[in-house]
Amino acid sequence: MYIAEYLPVIMKFIASIIFASICSLHVHAQIVKNPTVEFRRTKILHIEKIERSPIHTIAEIRISHTPGEWFAFGKDVFLEDAETMEKCKLDSLQKGDLGERFIIPSSGDTTFRLYFSALPKQAKALNYADSNGTILYGISLLNSSSNQKSNKVSAEVGRWMEKEMALSKSNKAKGIDRKTFFERDSAFIVGYIKGYDTRAGFSSGMIYNWNSMTSESVPSTIQIFPDGSFKAKMEIFHPTTNYMEINNLRIPFYLEPGNTLGIALDWDDFLENSRRYDQDFKAQHTKYTGSLQSINEELWGYKMIAPESHSLKEFRKTLTPEVFKERALNEWDRSLRNLEVYLADRKLSLDVKTLLRNAIDVEFAEYVFNYVKGRDYYSQQDTTNAILKMPIDTTYYNFVNRINLNDHTLLVGSGFDLLLNRMEFSPIYLRTFYGKIILDDQQSADRFRRTYPSKKLPLSYHLMLLREVSNVAKHYAVNDSIFNKFTDIALRSTDLPIIAQEVERISATRQLKRNGYDLPNTPAAELFRKLIKPYTGKILIVDFWAQWCGPCRTGIESSLAVRQSLKDNPNIDFVFITDESGTPDVAFFESYSKRNFMRNSLRITADEYLALRELFRFNGIPRYILVDIDGRIRDDNFLISNLKFDLNNRFPEKFQGLEF
């Protein structure tokens, strides 16, 4: 009776408390629309609104990505107070589940509402992150742009760049004339990234440079300083075109020996590239400076009609060799016609016109060669395919007559190395495989002339002979007598000074590596010494590999039994080195290393890995380095397939007679 009498009063009191609580939440809620971001590492993710209350924090996020790609928010996503680093974990999504893959619609944009635990009351700015690192820094909760970092290039960077450009050995473009073409010298690229921040997560890039004359990799590291300025030193042998690769963004350049090229980049292009995932993405804000400015601007303003390389696998199975060749040559001609229309409307230098035509010729010639490459493999996979069984007539290769193979300017293009490789392994050239020697080199010359009639053998032919000298020099098992026969053939085939100079250099390098050499006093060398220090006193096989690299993993898995048989041998050990970029999955790294008996498995930073690439001059992986008990490099391009032979011959006192 007593409770019933006062029930209306009690209910009114409870209702007033609930109403007050709701009002309190409303009063304490904070909404920030389009908050400023101090620094972002991606353009895929945009914070459109932050709703903050004592109970939770809601982030409205727009994803801008390639249509058809997927995106997911994992349990590892969190917000953190930018000052105290106190974390607020992601609890749920308004629609969908954590870890669920969402397909990006045709518009390229989609919006999500993410529910996080409540933020600390004192938080003024947030970071958005996941287990791979911070993605957005300094998301303002004050709805103010005062925290936004300026993208202006400092006066100090400008003065530094001017000083570096002034130090250039050559302040005039020499061009691609044959008289001044072959010149071995250093060249530099200096520049800056407008809007760069050390929080970008990288401080170096790479130029995957090649000496196409000898098929040797000569990579160069791009050092990026905290203020966004960068510098790279390259060893080049003639004018060259190539790409800088910084954080997956490729920036093309033309460079000459002894010269310095200035390049200004913009962080916005890096962000746009991260959103597109397009290898052909062209940075929109790149600016070139110096004496090579005009040729770079002219070269990279045109985009050729490229071969249908994406359909090549299908063409091998569905188009006969002659039908494919006719189709490819028609596309080749169409690409050249399109270029001539472009050139007719513009006043470009003769050098640029030559290089643009060469680029088309080289890419299409390689494409026609590539149709043949791998046919044997595919015919074994598809034994009923009649097209794959059709023989390739030698007349198929007469398309090489469309190119002047005596033209030295072909060497300028970065793709010419691959074209030489395709010719070397084709029937038009009699390649002297490892263990064989052509005593009568006239046989090789005659075969080449049957496809490419020429009274005087062209430069490209002499380069293929030189590349054989370079290849033979890498084999420890090749004795001096055989090596000298290769060099004699290369030298007597031509009187070109550059061939003689390269043969002399290769011979000297071969001798140096046979005796072993000490690492230089550089930061990269010091890093390597530190990595191998725990194994001092042992002969080491250092294996550079990556998670994505199929040949690397094949080599690791196929050598498992050998490594296990040597596990108790006190004279040898194996060290495996990968990096955070090439092997991003830590769980995979740990389980794969354990499963494949990789006892000494190291995972270093991407910047450190690039530095070691430059130190040991390798573009591709796997790469094996042989180190002796004193830490001297006995072979920086060790052939793991010759492991038993090489160990027995190099270190007979330790391994002779040993079975493994």
Automatic annotation (TrEMBL):
Localization: Cell envelope
SUPFAM superfamilies documented for this protein: Thioredoxin-like
Transmembrane portions of the chain: none
Keyword line: Cytochrome c-type biogenesis, Disulfide bond, Redox-active center
Record keyword Disulfide bond present: yes
Matching PROSITE patterns: THIOREDOXIN_2
Organism: Sphingobacterium corticis
Residue ranges constituting the Thioredoxin domain according to the UniProt record: 480-648
Protein name: Thioredoxin-like domain-containing protein
Gene3D superfamilies linked: Glutaredoxin
Protein's UniProt keywords contain Disulfide bond: yes
